[in-house]
Amino acid sequence: MAYSQTAEEYFKSADNKLAAKNYKAAIADYSSVIFINPKDAKAFCNRGIAKDSLHDYKGAMADYSAAIAIDPDDAKAYNNRGLIKEQQKDYRAAMADYSDAMNLDPKSAAACINRGRIKDKLNDYMGAIVDFNKAIAIDSNYVSAYLNRGNIKNHLKDHDGAIADYDKAITIDPNYASAYFNRGLTKILLKQKREGCDDLAKAKELGYENVQDVIKKYCK
To answer: N vs C: which end of the chain shows fewer Cβ within 10 Å?
Structure first.
């Protein structure tokens, strides 16, 4: 897409403002790009991101949909629209958007994670594990994939497998409070109280919310 110089300048300015989290100013600049070029799918998508960041979910949804209408191959717009639908608990529609994002961009680990999370919510646990496995195959350091897969393994009573996933998450990110918390609970479930309480204490140190009540319950 060849922009006029003015549109290019607005777009560059908007991207800089978006990166700086100056969302209102970014929206204004993306709107200027769209005024000059109403068929700029990327401007709609990025303006949607800025609106999303300001909790204008209706506006963000409209922008993502506009981006998709202009460019049906915009995987990022599908993924981002799916996130809003998921937030609105429209899980089937969110899963459809994530699936489209994955089909358009098979290397999108984020879309795999997102669809797996939806499958988990819809009780399709094995399907969720397949998606988390795909995310890990794409990016072996995608830390939340291990956390989410570990959570499902716990649900399926594969506690040792869950701990292995939490271990991997912590190896990748030693400050991942959620992984310490979940590993701690799992170890306590397996009668490994001392190690479990150590993990809960680490989660507390890292700022995990509401962990103190759990510590009081299990680590007297």
So the answer is: C
What is the Rg, in whole angstroms, of the alpha carbon atoms belonging to the chain?
A: 21
Q: Could you write out the DSSP letters of every residue in 145-173?
A: HHHHHHHHHHHTT-HHHHHHHHHHHHHH-
Q: Which of 2-16, 45-59, 157-171, 179-193 has the lowest mean pLDDT?
A: 2-16
Task: Please determine, for residue 179, whether its predicted confidence score (pLDDT) is greater than 60.
Answer: yes
Q: What is the pTM of this model?
A: 0.89
Domain, as residue range, for 36? 7-72
Note whether residue 129 is domain-resident. Answer: no
Percent of the chain with pLDDT over 70: 98
In contact, 91 and 122? CB cutoff 8 Å: yes
Q: Cβ atoms within 10 A of the Cβ of 6, count? A: 11
Q: For the chain, what percent of residues have pLDDT higher than 90?
A: 95
In a domain, 145, yes or no: no
Per the CB < 8 A criterion, the answer to whether 49 and 60 are in contact is: yes
Please, which pLDDT band fits residue 220 given cuts at 50, 70 and 90? confident
DSSP type of residue 3: P
Q: Are 156 and 125 in contact (CB under 8 A)?
A: yes
**Are 107 and 95 contacting, i.e. CB atoms less than 8 angstroms apart?**
no
Assess whether pLDDT exceeds 80 at residue 166: yes
The owner of tokens 């922009």 is 3
Q: Which of 30, 51, 72 is the last residue of a domain?
A: 72
